[in-house]
Amino acid sequence: MATAPSAVIILAAGEGTRMRSTTPKVLHRIAGRSLVGHAIAAARVTQPAHLAVVVRHEREAVAAHVADIAPDAVIADQDEVKGTGRATECALDALPGELAGTVLVTYGDVPLLEGETLRRLLALHDETGSAVTVMTAHVPDPTGYGRVLRDASGDVAAIVEQKDATDEERRITEINSGIYAFDVAVLRDALRQVTTDNAQGEKYLTDVLAIVRSSGRRVTAHVVDDLWQTEGVNDRVQLAALARELNRRICERHMRAGVTIVDPATTWVDADVTIGPDAVIRPGSQLLGATTVGSYAVIGPEVTLTDTEVGERAVVRRCEADLAVIGAEATVGPYSYLRPGTVLGRKSKVGGFVETKNADIRDGAKVPHLTYCGDATVGERANIGAGTIFANYDGVAKHHTTVGKDSFVGSNTVIVAPVDIADGAYVAAGSAVTDDVDPGQIAIARGRQRNVDGWVDRTRAGTRTQASADAARDAGTRHTDTPSEGNGS
Ligand code: UD1
Ligand code: CA
User: Fold this and answer.
1) Protein residue closest via CA to atom 13 of ligand 1
2) Which atom of ligand 1 has the smallest separation from the CA of 108?
3) In sequence order, which residues have a C-beta less than 8 Å from that of residue 488 and are 6 or more positions away?
4) Residues 122, 93 share a domain
5) Please, which residues have CB within 8 angstroms of residue 303's CB and are 6 or more apart in sequence?
6) Does residue 289 have a pLDDT over 50?
7) What is the pLDDT of residues 265-284, one digit of tens each?
8) What is the DSSP annotation of 103-138?
9) Are 373 and 309 members of one domain?
10) Where residue 285 falls among pLDDT bands split at 50, 70, 90?
11) How far, in Å, from the CA of 3 to the mean position of ligand 1?
12) Is 89 part of any domain?
């Protein structure tokens, strides 16, 4: 295997005007990572001793992002001299002076480049003892790219940019990907000789190849078949096309590892997501960020999980979860909204039109219907009735509610936090609970029912309701166990 490079240099100083965005191009995201994040991830695979990112356009935003995701990376500032050659020179100046061996140069806007491809580039560079190894590709439409010029014996002689090329050179379909391995001493020396004497007035990195050739050193091309890996993002149409292809590749990787993805075309999985074998992902689902899904779990249809952990054999249908933990064998949805800090225990249930936040819903507990459960602990096997509201916010501060294990909260209850409902307690349906409830108690906190005899006859005389009341009375219907009042005042 190839030796690790002494550095990877990622060029990211360019402008990206065609994105028409206030966000710097390399900070646009696909598959849950910034474009430069993808470049850094690929670089890492080669285990470089140093990593440098060259910045200039939107310098502060790009540098801050790189410092965040790769704190060890050297931020190299490009000066006002333009071009990929100058960018590389600025990186070498920012890296330790004693750097020796091989450096790789890649771009911050080529997100599908794989670390494995860089490793093969390095291996070929080593095997051939080359001073430069350039990654090239044969493309149907080479417009805009630098063309690879080969000599009579088929060796790479030079690269000529579109704007500097003759008509004949423009017909060449082998293009420069812009990704290279260099002997660092040769690169340093050659860059000193590169001028800005060309159509764009830039210091081209590509000029290094002809300089190295004329010094008698070897330049090799590594031709890649997978064109996606050489493609840069210049506008949002390309951004979407590369995002779709990357997603297709990610889905394929999971399917080959034993995950059923029913419809890869409508399933979006970010690069860092992990999914256990025999999990099933149903159509219209998005698994985002650092989401993990356990084996045999069933996700979807139409589920969006962000930074969420799903246990084995959980079933999650038609819902949204953000920074939540869904325990093994739990069931969620349809139409549930799990907000940050939700932790669902094993075999727990969160059902239709239930919203949770900062809620620790323990093993076997059930919150089946139409509930808001915020800032709460719900004990093992407790049951929260339909329409229960945990009123956690008093307009100033949030307060916590505890419902003890095996307790039962009746439907349409409002629990005005802070409240502590003990283990083994009941709350009657329709209660507004403001005080703690002890073990074995039932809390009933609502107006008592009163039935007023003759009210319909007096106030709704002649209506269908009164006619039905008459008929029912004639038939002898009377709920004698309900307390009633004589004449309704
Ligand atoms: C470059 C190559 C071309 C190759 C193509 C592949 C040169 C002179 N040309 O062309 O042969 O086919 O890439 O996509 O190298 N950058 C800087 N500083 C600069 C200019 C660019 O950091 O001053 C960075 C950009 O942010 C980008 C990369 O270098 O990541 C390539 O820049 P770009 O302007 O796209 O190069 P091309 O002209 O397309
Ligand atoms: Ca480009």
Assistant:
1) 178
2) 30
3) 452, 453, 454, 455, 458
4) yes
5) 282, 284, 285, 286, 316, 317, 318, 319, 320, 321, 333
6) yes
7) 999 999 999 999 999 999 99
8) EEEEETT-TT--HHHHHHHHHHHHHHT-SEEEEEEE
9) yes
10) very high
11) 27
12) yes
Taking only the tens place, the pLDDT of each residue in 305-326 is 999 999 999 999 999 999 999 9
Whether residue 488 is predicted with pLDDT greater than 60 in this model: the reply is no
Protein residue whose Cα sits closest to atom 16 of ligand 1: 14
Residue 83 Cα: closest atom of ligand 1: 23
Q: Which ligand is nearest to the CA of 233?
A: 2
The ligand 1 atom at the shortest distance from the C-alpha of residue 205 is 15
SS3 274: strand
CATH of the domain at 340: 2.160.10.10
Ligand 1 centroid from CA 188, angstroms: 18
Residue 293 has pLDDT above 80, yes or no: yes
Q: Which domain holds residue 462?
A: 451-480
CA 170–ligand 2 middle distance (angstroms) = 17
Q: Are residues 181 and 212 in the same domain?
A: yes
Can you give the pLDDT at residue 1?
Answer: 62
Which residues are identified as catalytic?
Answer: 369
Cα(463) to centroid of ligand 2, in Å? 80
pLDDT for 54-91, tens place per residue? Answer: 999 999 999 999 999 999 999 999 999 999 999 999 99
> From the alpha carbon of 55, which atom of ligand 1 is closest?
22
Q: What residue ranges line ligand 1, CB within 6 angstroms?
A: 11-14, 54, 78, 82-84, 86-87, 107-109, 145-146, 159, 161, 175-178, 204-206, 232
- The Cα–Cα gap between 35 and 31 comes to 9
Is the pLDDT score of 223 beyond 60? yes
Amino acid at 61: A
Residue 318 to residue 302: CA distance in whole angstroms: 5
